[in-house]
Write a structure and sequence with these properties.
Radius of gyration: 19 Å
CATH class: Mainly Beta
Number of strands: 15
Structural class: mainly beta
Oligomer: single chain
Strand content: over 45%
Distance between the termini: 44 Å
Order of helices and strands: HEEEEEEEEEEEEEEE
């Protein structure tokens, strides 16, 4: 049960930075966007398979990551999400009746699962732009860490995701709206996923940028049964609707800082606590 919960935290951590980061616009050749982020989620509750909120032992994940987009051509953009330091912890469990330790605390520090993508502009230089992106999810994290071997910074499966994104600029480029649909093919008998996303954003003055994102992850339930603990399959058949507002401040023409809060408005097999992230970014 605990091992499953840590994979649920991990998936929220990985998707929070990548969802709708560039919209339907590919980077121009030689241009780019790069971001260094710190992500944290600490939770003692999660959504059960039936959608009920249950109490759990307090668990946490801290991810320090790099996200980057770089234009190889005016239509083709290379994208990478690399959590180069991932830390997962589990608080000790104490009996409320007699104060006796039920289970010790545990921790693991390692590299995290990494996403590498190529985005291609199908429709560019139009009021509505459309791009297609192929993402390869590399299982570089630790799927059995800590003294208990139940803490994880990766799920051990290789996935391939195809995403179609469409965006439209508004108010002479000071606002925008983006939408995505994605199919995530997962290996190791994990269920495939359908993802739907929406983002709206607006520039306030010359320095401030605000945006809000919705991401819906839906399992196709065509893999192994999550509730069978002996099959070695974890983080399977999860579903959630995540809402993430973000605010950014442009320090100058190149550098800026950002902060975001993400939460699952509804879910199945996901944590029921908010996540927080801080980042510094650079426009090339």
């Amino acid at each position: 049960m605990l091992k499953k919960l840590f994979n649920l935290i991990l998936i929220l951590a990985l998707t929070s930075n990548a969802a709708l980061a560039g919209g339907g616009w590919p980077q121009k050749k030689g241009k780019g966007y790069f971001k260094l982020s710190q992500f944290v989620i600490i939770s003692d509750q999660y959504y059960s398979p039936a959608g009920d909120i249950l109490d759990i032992a307090t668990a946490s994940v801290f991810n320090t990551s790099f996200y980057g987009e770089y234009g190889l051509t005016d239509r083709l953009t290379a994208v990478a999400y690399i959590p180069f330091f991932a830390r997962a912890t589990l608080n000790e469990q104490i009996s409320g009746r007699d104060g006796r330790q039920i289970a010790p605390g545990d921790e693991v520090n390692s590299f995290g699962d990494t996403d590498l993508s190529l985005k291609y502009g199908l429709i560019v230089d139009k009021p509505i732009v459309v791009s297609a992106m192929l993402t390869l999810g590399l299982p570089l994290g630790n799927e059995a860490g800590g003294d208990t071997q139940i803490l994880q910074t990766g799920d051990g499966e290789f996935n391939q995701m195809l995403t179609i994104e469409a965006s439209r600029g508004l108010k002479k480029g000071r606002a925008w709206i983006s939408a995505l649909v994605a199919f995530n093919n997962r290996s190791n008998n994990f269920s495939d996923e359908l993802r739907l996303g929406l983002e709206v954003g607006h520039k306030l003055g010359e320095r401030w940028i605000v945006n809000a994102k919705l991401l819906s992850v839906n399992s196709l339930s065509n893999g192994s049964d999550l509730e069978t603990p002996t099959n070695g399959i974890f983080s399977n058949n999860i579903e959630y609707l995540a809402f993430t507002p973000e605010v950014a401040y442009q320090l100058d023409d190149k550098f800026g800082i950002s902060a975001a809060i993400g939460t699952a408005l509804d879910g199945r097999r996901v944590l029921a606590s908010p996540s927080y992230s801080l980042g510094i970014f650079m426009n090339l």
